[in-house]
Task: inverse folding
């Protein structure tokens, strides 16, 4: 564990909410608005931290433990994500499984906390969330198998670094298929359009937002921050595919990943400005397409 | 070894004593005798099993039996020790739980009450005998005793028609399986010349067709007990019918004796061809995915858990299949990781499924209802049961920091190693395992979010729920012990690897050492996972402290759940278990065959409208039911043999004897 790894982790902790700001500014630009400040997410979190909480009489400790455990899982998962050539804080063979299952822990906590309120809206959101996640999971893990098969490395840091360094014209199609699969996973896991609309005002149509309707105060701050970190984790997974670890200079590497992350945020913003949310019945089909992309990529590397 | 045999005798004696009728009075002496017999016996036997596991040295005993078919030969090696630990550990807790569980039931006499403790102790003894038997005849006797004692336990409440039917289904299924085993062992005995396991090594030179036939017979015979799809049909019937501690014991360890016997047989038959591994992987993937999908469609809490046993047996089969593949391809890493994952999942499943069934039993005990759609909000009245169910749910969904993740991780590792091979015969099963495990993981989390959420969270869906009460200490203690075990196994996982490796050494003799390079690699990975779990727990505590700090000085307000401006929400408006699972069950509707019964609201001011769904087991409905109907018709034309007159039967016997005599001449 070197100093630069710790710095990279702290950098990710600090920068993660900024991505939300970048997405919102892009959307505002396309809508011709000025939009909220880039640092709005920080302000929201800081404001919520200072507030007191309101609890429904229906809820139990599960409701209060959900955000805490969810954020703990996200913070731990982030420790396994590299930043380009800068290695992750922790790394071992098969760590991507732990990361995927930690995201599962986060989801389980959110879902049980939502069911704890006894609200039919939140039950609805929870039901959709678990359905989509169950289909997205194979796409994510099979995608990682592509990386492992291509590079022979079984950890996130080593695998992603080796993948981006050995990209050639021949492996291009694989990389693109993998990117498509993971991008769909990224969108669904982070509740973005076309799977879910973070800005909707109707509980019936929401998925992630509706599950956290009843949270407030520090609990909600934890959820917002956890969501920002999840966005960072899954985003970094994709960006690391294409940022080759060529320079030994940690500053250059970090800058490259940061640039990639903001590019990703802008792409998400453009998609959100130019598309409508899919009908709920169509969502599983798109997710199965993500699985199919992963499997296609796998077939290409098995050749 | 003699300690273990003595403990088994003591348990049997305790069981027999518990049947002695006593004058009804205060207390329940027969339950006390039975329970204490099982607890003390299991505890004593557990020490022997652990000793063998720790030092890795097998013990064998052979006593001549005055019967023509062999000797009473028994033995414990680390592989047996591993299963014995699960059996005795869970039996001990189940007995303690059963002591508390049956206490209030004692008032209204149950028909199965009289001998229940005898059957429970016989079940424990026979499971142990199945594991330590080193002779096929002894094995079959123990196997039969196990089937019968569990049959009587399933039929505990046999004044209900449903329970009687479930018990018959179980009896027929288990004997169908035994029939295949009988054929298998007779073939083996005839080929080897003896029924001793040691002499079966003579089979090694036999032609592969014969060995393959034995394997197929074993898959069907043992698979019926273990609950491979589509042979699982008795599980969802028998588990809900049995008392909960019996379900815990049957689902947690009894079905694993099928897995154990399959492993033992493969170990006897020697290095497998690759397709044995493929078959097990395919069975595992099908059982795993369909098990969890069927579980999602259930409303009955215990039936849901029973289907999850099918799912977890599938996961175990995935691990064992990869182990066999690694063995046949001579790849140590795949073999050890696959077998280790499968074996560890056996123990893990015993722990969390035992826990889930015990807490489901506690719910059943409190509200006297198994239908999840009527439950809700039980966590407030039953905090310990609820916390136990939560732990079990997270563990069975494979979520860190609990034990389910560790065994699934080992199986994933074996699959990844498969994918790095150059043979398509290894790569494709590897992909299949990863894809299906990922899907199973997601669906299991969905199913347990549903089960825990609908039963314990929200508002009570029927008025009886608010009368629910926490169970007594005899029932609480086993749940607490098992919850702690879920966490401890995950945190101490690296230390289990040597014991696992000596168990695998019993499967593939001479290929595995306790501290080679491969166990070292696995140990490193598991150390990381334990560390990760520890960091997670530390982060959890730190964040909880931060939250408490932030909330200090503020008064937390109590109000109602956000009702969207509609000021009269009722508990009936909550999302139900069926509606929660509907999107997923709809995706798998082709496999599920869900039937709906509805009367839709009609006219102005509609009054009575109802909607219900019903999910039959497709294997039962489309395979076994037609098969048995056909058999019934076919057998009807032989009915004239059955005259009902004793004289005619005596004649039959005489004729058969004469024919046999003629053959002998």
Result:
């Amino acid at each position: 564990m070197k100093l630069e790894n710790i710095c990279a982790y702290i950098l990710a902790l600090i920068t993660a909410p900024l991505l939300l700001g970048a997405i919102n500014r892009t959307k505002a630009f396309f809508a011709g608005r000025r939009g909220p400040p880039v640092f709005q997410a920080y302000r929201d979190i800081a404001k919520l931290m200072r507030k007191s909480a309101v609890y429904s009489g229906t809820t139990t400790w599960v409701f209060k433990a959900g955000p805490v455990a969810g954020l703990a899982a996200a913070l731990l998962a982030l420790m396994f994500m590299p930043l380009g050539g800068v290695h992750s804080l922790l790394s071992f063979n098969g760590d991507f499984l732990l990361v995927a299952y930690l995201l599962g822990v986060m989801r389980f906590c959110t879902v049980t906390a939502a069911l704890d309120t006894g609200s039919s809206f939140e039950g609805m959101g929870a039901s959709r969330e678990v359905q989509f996640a169950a289909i997205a999971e194979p796409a994510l893990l099979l995608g990682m198998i592509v990386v492992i098969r291509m590079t022979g490395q079984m950890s996130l840091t080593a695998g992603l670094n080796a993948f981006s360094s050995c990209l050639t014209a021949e492996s291009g199609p694989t990389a693109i298929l993998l990117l498509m699969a993971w991008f769909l996973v990224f969108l669904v896991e982070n509740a973005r359009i076309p799977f879910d609309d973070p800005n909707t005002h109707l509980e019936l149509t929401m998925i992630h937002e509706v599950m956290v309707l009843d949270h407030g105060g520090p609990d909600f701050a934890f959820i917002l921050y956890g969501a920002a970190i999840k966005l960072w984790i899954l985003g970094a997974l994709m960006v690391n595919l294409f940022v080759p670890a060529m320079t030994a200079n940690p500053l250059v590497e970090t800058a490259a990943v940061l640039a990639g992350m903001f590019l990703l945020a802008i792409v998400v913003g453009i998609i959100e400005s130019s598309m409508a949310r899919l009908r709920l019945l169509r969502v599983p089909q798109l997710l199965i397409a993500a699985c199919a992309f992963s499997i296609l990529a796998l077939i290409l590397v098995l050749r | 070894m003699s300690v273990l045999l003595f403990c088994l005798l003591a348990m049997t004696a305790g069981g027999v004593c518990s049947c002695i009728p006593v004058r009804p009075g205060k207390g329940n002496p027969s339950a006390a005798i039975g329970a204490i017999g099982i607890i003390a016996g299991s505890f004593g036997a557990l020490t022997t099993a652990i000793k063998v596991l720790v030092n890795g040295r097998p013990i064998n005993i052979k006593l001549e039996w005055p019967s023509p078919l062999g000797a009473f030969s028994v033995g414990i090696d680390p592989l047996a020790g591993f299963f014995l630990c699960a059996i005795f550990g869970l039996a001990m807790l189940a007995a303690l739980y059963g002591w508390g569980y049956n206490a209030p039931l004692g008032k209204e006499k149950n028909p199965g009450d009289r001998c229940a403790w005898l059957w429970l102790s016989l079940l424990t003894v026979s499971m142990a005998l199945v594991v330590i038997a080193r002779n096929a005849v002894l094995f079959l006797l123990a196997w039969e005793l196990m089937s019968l004692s569990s049959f009587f336990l399933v039929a505990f409440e046999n004044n209900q028609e449903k329970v009687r039917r479930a018990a018959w289904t179980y009896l027929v299924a288990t004997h169908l399986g035994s029939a295949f085993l009988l054929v298998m062992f007779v073939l083996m005995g005839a080929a080897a010349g003896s029924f001793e396991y040691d002499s079966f090594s003579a089979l090694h030179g036999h032609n592969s067709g014969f060995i393959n036939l034995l394997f197929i017979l074993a898959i069907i015979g043992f698979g019926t007990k273990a609950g491979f799809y589509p042979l699982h049909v008795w599980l969802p019937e028998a588990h809900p019918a049995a008392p909960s501690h019996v379900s815990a014991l049957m689902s947690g360890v009894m079905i694993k004796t099928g897995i154990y016997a399959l492993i033992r047989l493969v170990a006897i038959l020697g290095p497998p061809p690759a397709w044995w591994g493929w078959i097990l992987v395919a069975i595992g993937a099908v059982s795993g995915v369909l098990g969890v999908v069927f579980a999602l469609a259930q409303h009955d809490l215990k039936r849901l858990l029973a289907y999850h046993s099918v799912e977890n047996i599938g996961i175990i089969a995935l691990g064992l299949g990869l182990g066999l593949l690694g063995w046949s391809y001579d790849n140590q890493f795949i073999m050890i990781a696959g077998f280790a994952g499968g074996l560890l999942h056996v123990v893990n499943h015993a722990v969390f499924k035992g826990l889930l069934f015990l807490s489901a039993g506690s719910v059943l005990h409190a509200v006297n209802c198994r239908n999840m759609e009527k439950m809700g909000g039980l966590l407030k009245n039953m905090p310990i049961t609820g916390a136990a169910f939560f732990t079990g749910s997270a563990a069975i969904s494979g979520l860190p920091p609990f034990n389910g993740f560790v065994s699934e991780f080992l199986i994933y590792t074996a699959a990844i190693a498969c994918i790095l091979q150059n043979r398509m015969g290894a790569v494709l099963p590897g992909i299949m395992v990863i894809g299906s495990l990922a899907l199973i993981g997601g669906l299991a989390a969905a199913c347990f979010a549903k089960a825990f959420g609908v039963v314990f969270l929200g508002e009570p869906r029927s008025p009886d729920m608010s009368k629910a009460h926490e169970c007594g200490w005899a029932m609480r203690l086993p749940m607490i012990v098992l919850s702690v075990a879920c966490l401890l196994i995950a945190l101490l996982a690296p230390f289990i690897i040597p014991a696992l490796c000596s168990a695998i050494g019993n499967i593939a003799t001479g290929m595995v050492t306790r501290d080679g390079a491969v166990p070292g690699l696995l140990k490193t990975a598991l150390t990381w996972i334990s560390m990760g779990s520890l960091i997670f727990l530390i982060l959890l505590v730190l964040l909880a402290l931060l939250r408490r700090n932030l909330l200090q000085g503020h008064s937390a307000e109590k109000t109602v759940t956000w009702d969207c401006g509609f000021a009269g929400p009722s508990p009936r408006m909550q999302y139900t278990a069926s509606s929660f699972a509907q999107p997923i069950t709809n995706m798998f509707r082709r496999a599920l065959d869900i039937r709906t019964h509805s009367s839709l609201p009609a006219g102005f001011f509609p009054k009575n409208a109802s909607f219900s769904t019903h999910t039959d087991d497709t294997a039962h409905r489309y395979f076994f039911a037609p098969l048995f109907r056909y058999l019934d018709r076919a057998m009807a034309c032989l009915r004239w043999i059955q005259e009902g007159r004793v004289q005619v039967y005596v004649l039959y016997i005489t004729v058969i004897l004469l024919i046999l005599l003629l053959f002998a001449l």
User: Anything to note?
Assistant: The first helix of chain B runs from residue 2 to 18. The mean pLDDT of chain B is 89.
